[in-house]
Every structure is written in C-alpha cells, then in structure tokens.
C-alpha cells in the first residue's frame, strides 16, 4: 500500500509518499512560492542503491492544482519516479490543522466533512483554508482514491473539561466553540508511542511530558496514553515562546497596545503571531542563528534563549503537578532534536523532580531515538526524531484498510 501525505499551505505543498508495507518514505518534497513569479519544486527520492537523489526545479507555479499535478508527474517520472502511475497510490492523506469539536479521529473526506472543516475556519483562518485547497485539488487529480483528513487537534480531545474550558462566560464555549484545542497532535502521539517502544512498556502504563520544539512549539501532558493537557489553546498562539509567536502573556496587553499605541486588531494579531517570540526579542526566529550569536557573546540572543527555555521549564513543572508522577520527558522537533543547549537549560536544576541530563549523552549527535538522562535520574529524558507524516500515513492506513 502506498499513501501520499499532503500538507498544503497558503503558498506551498509539502508531500511524502510512503510504502506502508515497510513504513518508509519513497519520496518527499515541497512546492513553494505558489502563485508568485519565482516558484520552486524540490523533489527527493531514495533510489535502489539507498542513496537519496534530489531534483530542484525553479519557475512559476501558477496555483495549487499545477503544483500537485507536477508532484504527481514527478512521482511517476521515468528517472526520479517511485511509481508507474498515480493509480498505485492507495490513499491521499491531508494534514488539517483544526478539526474543532467535530473531528476527534482521522476521517474519510466527503462533502459533509469538507463543509464541517469550512465551518471551523474562524478557529484557524490561516491554516484551514489552504488545507481545504489541498483537499479539493487532490480530489480532482486523484478521482476515486480515498482521501483522509488527519487533524492536529484530534489527539488532544481526551482532555477533561476543566483542562480545556476557559474561565470566560460559558455561552462563548456553547455558541462559538471558544475553548482549548491544542495542536501538533500527530507529533505528540507519534513520539509518545516511540518513547513507549524504547522504554519497553505499554503506552497505557506510562506518564509522559512531550515537548515539540520547532518554529512553532507546544507541550503535552500524557497520562497513560491519553493527553490530559497541552500548552497551545484555541489557536497556536498560546503557550511556549516560539519563533515568531509570543506564547503566554497578560490578556490585557492587547488593550494596552490598542489604547496607547493606537494599534488595530490586525496589527496586534500580526505583532503577537509574526513579530514576537525569539524574533521579537533578538531579531531572528532561527534558533541556529540565536545560538551562534549566544556563542559570540550577544546579550539579546542570550536573553531570548533564557526566556525560551525558562518557559519550557515552567511547563515541565506544571505538567509534573498535573500528572503526579512522570516516567519520561520527551524532546522532539527541529529544535528539540538538534539544540542540546535548549534541552540542557530546559532541564537545568530539576533534580528535585528527579530529572537530570548527562552532558556527554546530551551532546551526542545521532538521528536515532536516544536517552540523554543521567544515570541517577529517576525520570528518563529522551530525544525522539519527529515523523508526523509517517503518523498521518499510519492513521490513514487504518481508515482505508477494511
């Protein structure tokens, strides 16, 4: 069985094609700058000798339909293709950011599902519309092929009402769905399962704190395999400090900005989502650049790093209190996997909770799952490589294998 996973953005399409018999990616890539004068399509494939090959094509990509058509052609290309024709694709799976309360599991897409995803657009105005474009285009290009929606929010639907209801007038929840939903659900689900495999225990027997650190960042408290709390809220703005997002802040701050700086709602929204976080503190949202500047003695970059890791540490403590007992803390995502100093600072002085990192293990570079906790640490600290796309493909396989 071959499953194509699509993540459609407003001007991009990320994709991976999986062979689900061996659960490995055959090809991956990205069409970017769709609708602009200078587009780019990058296609990577693992050929017979096991060596990856990459093809980069520059040039305008008019719209998502053209982009996905070119992707399907590349997948069946005589030289860099991995299938004979698109009929070999058993299912197309779509990452959809917000499922609201309607979707708590992966769902086969039909007209009713599309209508419901559209209804959730106010909850994710930057994400759901391009996700829908990807769905509509894929249904036209792969007619008759099952299409499955896998929702970022689904994993967090096991939270109790006291964890997801905000202390606002209750009718805002009843009428408009104002509540905590959480995101990065496929990532938190995948790494929790991999952590359980590594520890040799059933996921249902473990309490975990999972930490997904990329340009967007979130944490989850997982009790016996079920999410009981997560740091992102109704939108991806709440919680940790991120690349360009502020995360938690005083709810009255937008009023101050509006009244005293005469900022509009759109300006405030842009400030909190696109100009804050690491970028707001030191001018860049790239953690690699932040760390390079820290090494060079840049005080503002050091402040950004300290604020970033301090927030993670606070959430570790909070989720320890929520869970009562913790078996492992799990880091994942581009920053979580590669920035050893971020892991070190986030767990610094947590020996009172039973968390201690071993410096040499933490600084060992490998692409495999690994333990970085010290010998005397009561709680395991793990680094688990992210693979949200594989998790999406696995969930899709369950839906279409009947």
Q: Could you report the average pLDDT, rounded to the nearest whole number? A: 94
CATH fold call of the largest domain: Nucleotidyltransferase, domain 5
Highest CATH level, the class of the largest domain: Alpha Beta
Category from helices, strands and their pairing: alpha/beta
Spatial strand arrangement across the major sheet: 5-4-3-2-1-6-8-7
Question: What general outline do the C-alpha atoms trace?
Answer: globular
Helix/strand order: EEEEEHEEHHEHHHEEEHHHHHEHHHEEH
The H-level CATH homologous superfamily of the largest domain, spelled out, is ATPase, nucleotide binding domain
Biggest sheet descriptor: 8 strands, mixed
- Overall structural domain count: 2
Which stretches are low in confidence, meaning pLDDT under 50 for 5 or more residues running?
Answer: none
CATH architecture of the largest domain: 2-Layer Sandwich
* Strand element count: 14
Entry summary:
With about 400 residues, the protein is of the alpha/beta class.
